[in-house]
Amino acid sequence: MSITQRLLVPAGLKVLITGGAAGIGASIAAGFLEAGARVYVCDIDAQALEDFRRRHPGARGTVADVGREDAAAHAVEDAAQALDGLDVLVNNAGIAGPTGGIDTLSAPDWERTIGTNLNSQFYFLRHAVPHLKRSAHNPHIVAMSSVAGRLGYPFRTPYAATKWAIVGLMKSLAAELGPEGVRVNAILPGVVAGPRMDRVIAARAQALGLDDEAMRAQYLGKISLRRMVSAEDIAAMALFLSTPAASNISGQAISVDGNVEYL
């Protein structure tokens, strides 16, 4: 196989993506579909899922609250049946969580962030790993973390706590599953342009008593390249990690962020 051939996603790869109907997840799903993979997405937003499948009729999917194990179990088993197995799990689903000082946060907001961002990864792993172990096609897990999984993030402690935990989960699983041929890596997106980031900037600006444009300038000033990344940048990394060229990449926390220096 030539080097350029090694850079191609194998046709027919069977991929499950959580939170796959919008944002980064939808970009990853669209990228895999474009590459000829078979794709199953789950999402809590039924309308977003319907819209995604209208744009991409080749995709399969279901509505699922990823923070519930029964929903995760159903999604994994339905995906494995629809695709006739699993080769790749992209644990992408997550929420921004609350913004504020630690003494102002509510326990329900903390627990919802932990449940959606961290517990969901465990639920999908628990049910998907047996299928991945049976794959003969370079099985791989992508754990979606964040630049907040390598840097402290004032006023966003619930979110940062989950993203650091995801890196630890990935590192441990890479060692656990490596002997069985299953690779595990984490992608750490930086400041991703889009509506979600606009909401985060607005909430943080309010918490710090700044206007939105001043807050946006502060974010860009912390990035070496002085620009946000796109959802397609993250999707490209997820696809690369699922190619033969990445067959010996495991246990890595890979930042796609323009080099965010601090948060």
How do the strands and helices of this protein lay out in sequence?
Elements lengths: L2 H4 L7 E5 L4 H12 L3 E6 L2 H10 L4 E4 L5 H15 L4 E4 L15 H27 L6 E5 L12 H21 L5 E7 L5 H14 L3 H10 L9 H10 L12 E4 L7
Helix pairs in contact: 2-9, 4-5, 5-6, 7-8
Could you walk me through the main structural features you see in this protein, from its secondary elements to its overall organization?
This is SDR family oxidoreductase. With 263 residues, the protein is α/β, with parallel strands linked by helices. It has a single domain, classed as Rossmann fold (3-Layer(aba) Sandwich). Helices cover 47% and strands 13% of the residues. It contains nine helices and seven strands, in the order H-E-H-E-H-E-H-E-H-E-H-E-H-H-H-E. It has helices at 3-6, 23-34, 46-55, 69-83, 107-133, 157-177, 195-208, 212-221, 231-240, and strands at 14-18, 38-43, 60-63, 88-91, 140-144, 183-189, 253-256. It has a seven-stranded parallel sheet with strand order 3-2-1-4-5-6-7, sandwiched between helices. Helix 5 (107-133) links the parallel strand 4 and strand 5. The radius of gyration is 18 Å and the shape is globular. It starts with a helix and ends in a 7-residue tail after the last strand. 45% of the residues are buried.
